[in-house]
Amino acid sequence: MKRRRFITLLGGVAVAGPCVGRAQQPAGYRIGHLALAAPTDTPPPPPANWNAFVQGLREAGYIEGLNIAFEHRSAHGQPELFPKLALELASLKVDVIFARGTWALAAAKSATKTIPIIGIDLEIDPVEAGLVESIARPGGNVTGLFLDLSELSGKHLQILKEIIPGTSRVAVLGDPDINAPQIREVERIAQSLSMQTQIVGMKNATALDDAFNTAVNWYADALIVLSNPLTLAYRTRIAEIAAKAHLPTIYLYRQHVTAGGLLSYGPDLPDMFRRCGVYVGRILGGTKPADLPIERPARFELVVNLKAAKALGIAVPEMILARADEVIE
After folding, report:
1. pTM for the whole thing?
2. CATH label, 29-148+268-299, candidates 3.40.50.720, 3.40.50.10330, 3.40.109.10, 3.40.50.2300
């Protein structure tokens, strides 16, 4: 059941409309795609994200098989492979690298100082991480879309408190390194709400069962899943384990909820990927990454899965349902 969709402008720049049919446009651009999982991997990344990226390229006048080709490099769920994969793309002298996530971005930045890099990252501040000089003028070969809004993790705690008023112990699933800003904010907000938190680390997919066992043995009332490439790639498995553990869980992206999770609050991820496609198109059209400001996500949404709520024995308050952008029944 569709609810309302609202748009929050956090920053960004206006981009020219579609520019198709440019006769002067040379053919044969190669786009390096560096990700934890490629579209053909098992489990695959959310297909809506990749499709949105391709749509953004189309809006900019670039179509696979016509004037662009992809060089996919997947780490297959193993972040330690990224440096080698990034060097492979650099050695191929691709025209631009689309790097997805903190690990991919860091590896691409280390591999080349000349090839433009369009990144999407949902955990770090690109200035603080040393990837760019400033938000308005990145100044090097990296730009893209970033979400360093750690306060969203605190918002998740508040939503859990509304749905399950007695919540006092919340486990937090994420990577202690990549998710450090989110973890700090969760702990800060938890203290103000008189709640306790327990960080359950996940460095790879094999750590999932141990992480949930830790949460259950700690008698967690609920779980927050932080944003990183691993938690998104294994969204279906995480939803299954959370349901089996009878652990109410909140996420950042709707893809977790459509995979069976309870609820999410965060940015419209496909829209961010579409904007990345537009940015890659602008790079191929001659714009330098140093001149493309970092963009923030423009759309945020609350999604609730009533089927998951019923299985957990949770009656979602009408106030939450009224605020939801989508309710899955």
Report:
1. 0.79
2. 3.40.50.2300
